[in-house]
């Protein structure tokens, strides 16, 4: 990855007041609260360099991380938080070449994280029944350069999935209704992750999972706490995210352990 | 990835009592508490299938996830937990083609997780000053098939690193001493993650980070809580991991914001 | 409270290996792993003093706190933990002169904590349907000196309570069945606290509470985390209690807000 | 405690929009966003009853709990939260007749909670060096009816305390400087609790405690998480208090264990 900014790169501009902008470098300008930035002037500078607006206000040029993109992206839906994303990717064991089903795709944040991990030989089948969500997700995925890896399907999943997959990520309001479809579409030993905001949903999902040939059924929640980065007064921030969703994991087997 | 078990695959055998074994399928046998398994007989079966020991005891054949491997691997060191791993990978923004420095490599768990994400075009430079740890890490990395992507260096990092990197993962007892080296070796806008078991270490690391050109300095800790997967009595397990390490993140810039 | 140990005092002996004993000072001896202690010899010593066993092994004499008593007491039941006790007492607003119903009393830990707060003019009505539990609780309450304040009732609560109370503490497996009884027995504006190990129980309790004239319905859980008290390596202990029970609180009103 | 509202009672008025007012019932009126309340008209009503403003807007009349008073009280300082208060009272083992030192008293919330537990025969010595804080605390304590039990001292504690106490609660910015004074003023086996917002303060306090004759040195923090009380969608609220203060506890002994 080049050290220097090139035409069409996405860059993150960080101002002294911690305001940030993520923008693609083209022959255009960006208007900010600190004055105008001529983006083409950034070409050839190194990532990590300082530059200035027309008003002489300094900013730093960073490479946007996926976590930055996710927090800045256009969205209409509740997103899976980075605190949960990383753990879900680990538990789903997403890797190069995997075929993954992502249903419902929402704004595409988790889809992008999966697409990045499967590499050029993998594939994500992204189901979404709402056209407006699908459009946003497609635009986000395109912007981040993963369109080749993602097949979008505007489709209700009540009739099941069209593919066999190594892993399924299920983020819909009534996940318990699709557990049989998931079992059918998972390859043997394939992993499923289901996110549920409420305990009632978890209960219904567990009931379904126990009724099908799944093993290693686990339920987790993550609490991430941030500290003020002040060496002489190190302490957590006053408030934190208390809850996003419970995460339910399981692995498909071809018949019951109890067989 | 094939649905069927082939010679040389690594497989996870799950018994009814939740005992597991991870083993490579070759022309050999595995002795278990439930009787002997002739491993070559597994070839051609599908992942997710049942099989039996010579004693007729059933087990399920699963594909080991990286998280399974990590909890089973030979190790002499405290490991980074999957609960933290996923978040660190997100915050370091590890992706295809990245060059990453991993110091000290310990038993190689984090190294493997990074190697998997960088794909065939990326590279991990894995520093470890203790020969016994390096040997274990090399063996683990080889076993998991990532040797091509990892360059091991038996070396103290007090004189710095030999490479420039997109990201650095620092897991040593005195990380504050190497912040200047990290700054020098990071490419502009590159990400660093430092894990510290104690608050005192975090304080010293923060002091150093604030003294160099880093931005987005953040300190986090994660609490993962598991629930008993019983639909009619859904509740957390009685006990949980309370602490592994604080995670400190930052991004290198080429000169100070205050510049 | 006297600084000096008197006949019949309960004392806590703390040995160098952190072993503790709680015992009443009488004309008897205590056998320990470090040798015999003649208890009457402690009379006249000051709390906080050192003494020695017959073998010359030193120990410290402390006044047992209620939390020490609770962790040492004879019990057959899951107890309410001090982490939750303090919060429940605050939310129930227990104070001098209060009349409190405690159902089921279990081993009597919460009963003791309430009895202590209500003072000599208050009263606890302690319901327990199992005779073996009631006996243990009565013995514990007697030992701690609160018998005058507690009226034990060996009785199923399915037919309700015999008293009107300022506050009710409900710790039974099916609390939702007794919410109408609780409403009837609470004085106007009286507080109720219900402990439930599972989310399913909380759901059923909430449904009942919403069906009666209660306000300020709140559900809480507490996570207490302990740190190793080492100034140069300050960090949490590795493991912690992840869950004891959810705490549900509400306040009775005489008719519905929506009324 | 009477079921009926009397002249001079403090009452909490709860409106349908969850707005609350705490006020003393006298021959006066209370102006609210829902219209005027003639307070003397409440006399003779029962706690838990409904009443109406002059505009016909309904409200409920509740007895204010101490936790309600604390969240409503006039204050200029960070307060100890009820989540921590209850636990501190348990660990300090505050009980009838105790003599307790409270330094610095701040707005008086903890002082009130202690005063309530010690009963009419106990005493709190409340140290505060800032006159404005002391005035607020005295007014709060008077309002809640505990003036007889609290002796306020406008005084810096750098020269120590004038009393011997069963327990000390220390809530000042530099608590490590007063550990020797605390040791001197505690009766043998007496309990101390120190609240520290930062890890650096905890480290310094621990260093001092280890240098004096204290045992059972413990450091805790509490995380209280609240759930939305909706039976069909039971889940935690999105955000929570992440941190107020670390709590350090210890018990005085008359000479060292190692002695």
From TrEMBL, chains A, B, C, D:
Q: Which SUPFAM superfamilies has this protein been placed in?
A: S-adenosyl-L-methionine-dependent methyltransferases
**What role is this protein assigned?**
Catalyzes the S-adenosyl-L-methionine-dependent formation of N(1)-methyladenine at position 58 (m1A58) in tRNA.
| Keywords of this entry | Methyltransferase, S-adenosyl-L-methionine, Transferase, tRNA processing
Q: Which domain of life is it from?
A: Bacteria
Homology family: Belongs to the class I-like SAM-binding methyltransferase superfamily. TRM61 family.
Recorded protein name is tRNA (adenine(58)-N(1))-methyltransferase TrmI
In this protein, which residues make up the domain named tRNA (adenine(58)-N(1))-methyltransferase catalytic subunit TRM61 C-terminal? 73-228
Quickly give the catalysed reaction.
adenosine(58) in tRNA + S-adenosyl-L-methionine = N(1)-methyladenosine(58) in tRNA + S-adenosyl-L-homocysteine + H(+)
Q: Which GO terms describe its cellular component?
A: tRNA (m1A) methyltransferase complex
Q: Name one GO biological process term.
A: tRNA methylation
**Residues bound to S-adenosyl-L-methionine:** 128, 156, 171
Q: Which InterPro entries match?
A: SAM-dependent_MTases_sf, TRM61_C, tRNA_MeTrfase_Gcd14
Which is an annotated Pfam family here? GCD14
Q: What class of enzyme is it?
A: transferase
Give the multimer and partner information. Answer: Homotetramer composed of a dimer of dimers.
Native organism is: Pseudothermotoga lettingae (strain ATCC BAA-301 / DSM 14385 / NBRC 107922 / TMO) (Thermotoga lettingae)
EC assignment: the record states: 2.1.1.220
**Would the keyword tRNA processing be found if you checked this record's keyword annotation?**
yes
Q: Enumerate the GO terms in the molecular function aspect.
A: tRNA (adenine(58)-N1)-methyltransferase activity
């Amino acid at each position: 990855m080049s050290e220097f900014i090139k035409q069409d790169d996405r860059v993150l501009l960080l101002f002294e007041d911690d305001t940030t902008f993520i923008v693609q470098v083209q022959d255009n300008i960006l208007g900010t609260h600190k004055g105008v930035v001529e983006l083409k002037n950034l070409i050839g500078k190194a990532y990590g360099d300082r530059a200035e607006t027309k008003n002489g206000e300094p900013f730093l040029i960073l490479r946007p991380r996926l976590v930055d993109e996710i927090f800045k992206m256009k969205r209409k839906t509740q997103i899976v938080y980075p605190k949960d994303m990383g753990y879900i990717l680990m538990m789903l064991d997403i890797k190069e070449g995997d075929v993954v089903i992502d249903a419902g795709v929402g704004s595409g944040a988790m889809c992008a994280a999966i697409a990045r991990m499967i590499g050029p030989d993998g594939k994500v089948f992204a189901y979404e029944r709402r056209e407006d969500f699908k459009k946003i997700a497609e635009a986000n995925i395109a912007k981040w350069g993963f369109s080749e890896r993602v097949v979008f399907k505007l489709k209700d999943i009540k009739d099941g999935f069209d593919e066999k997959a190594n892993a399924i990520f299920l983020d819909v309001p009534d996940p318990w209704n699709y557990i049989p479809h998931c079992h059918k579409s998972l390859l043997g030993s394939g992993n499923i992750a289901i996110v549920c905001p409420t305990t009632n949903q978890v209960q219904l999902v567990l009931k379904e999972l126990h009724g099908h040939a799944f093993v290693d059924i686990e339920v987790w929640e993550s609490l991430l706490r941030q500290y003020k980065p002040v060496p002489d007064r190190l302490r957590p921030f006053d408030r934190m995210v208390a809850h996003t969703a419970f995460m339910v994991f399981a692995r498909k087997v071809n018949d019951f352990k109890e067989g």
